[in-house]
Amino acid sequence: MALVYDMPRRKRFDNKTREQQMRSLVLAVALFLFWLALSGHYTPFLLTIGVLCVALTVFVASRMLIVDDEGQPMELLLAAPAYWAWLYVEIAKSAVTVTRIILDPRLPISPTFTRVRASQKTTAGLATYANSITLTPGTITTGVSGDILTVHAIIREGADDLEAGGMDRRVRQFEGDA
Amino acid sequence: MEVIADAISWILIALGSFFLVSGAIGLIRMPDVYTRMHAASVIDTLGAMLLILGFVFQAGFSLLALKLLFVIALLFFFGPVASHAMAQAALHAEIEPLLAEDRRGRKVPGDDEPEPGGQPEGVPST
Asked: For chain B, what are the domain ranges?
């Protein structure tokens, strides 16, 4: 299981595998599209500057050794829209639940701390799961230790749902066999 | 067409504002820092999302709309990091959570040897 603490500490600078080149390329394309969307001015001079900025950024990022499966998880790119759509619906549902609790005169909260296992194989998948828990109103990831997440839930049912592991399975499916 | 976009936009903005106000009420009503964070997360997810979607309909089909969608994406990536950092800071400051139930000691399926008590470091037992 490739989790937080067994990441290789040192990688050689000259170890440019095809995979790293591919990641740098995808990063460069994504950054340039982002630049185009933010700029809105498409004169040759500005486009040249954009390309230079992207090249510099990708160069610095690969020197920093952050263009890897953790810093640039391109495998997740295709599956991301479907996952986000699912997550938005989950967020909307629990936001409504929490809003009902807030507006209920009795304030029916039952704060619960629990721990759940994250079964994701990659660090990007683990981070996605932990962040999805925090994004969903009513549950917050307060700690990660190995593959165990500590979660604070505003009502018991929130903790029960996470212990049942529906979201864990959905994130694992999103992660695929990457 | 303009009228329909306007109507959708106003409905979204009104709904978003409703969740913002509820979140703010929750911030006041909740008893401790951890439960308050749950109220705040209604604001920065559904509240902000609906508001910005409302703005997108005002902006029409343009670069501006795309930039607004980037703002939503930004909130979705940075929001949980900030919440997590705050919860950790509160735990490290040894602020005791008000709890109805503490299951931090529970055995997780597939657990061989649960840590004693299952308590994270620096957390007072409750």
From this structure: 2-96
Structural domain of A110: 78-175
Q: Compute the nearest-CA separation of A114 from chain B (Å).
A: 4
Q: Which of A22, A50, A72 is the last residue of a domain?
A: A72
Model confidence over B25-56: pLDDT tens digits? Answer: 999 999 989 999 999 999 988 999 999 999 99
Q: In terms of domains, do A68 and A120 share one? A: no
pTM: 0.82
Q: Across the interface, do B83 and A134 touch by the CB < 8 Å criterion? A: yes
Task: Give the total number of structural domains in chain A.
Answer: 2
Residue numbers of A between 86 and 125 with CB closer than 8 Å to B = 88, 91-92, 95-96, 98-99, 101-103, 107, 109-117
Q: How far apart, in Å, are the Cα atoms of B73 and each of A7, A88, A123, B48?
A: 28, 12, 20, 11
As a whole number of angstroms, the distance between CA A110 and CA A159 comes to 10
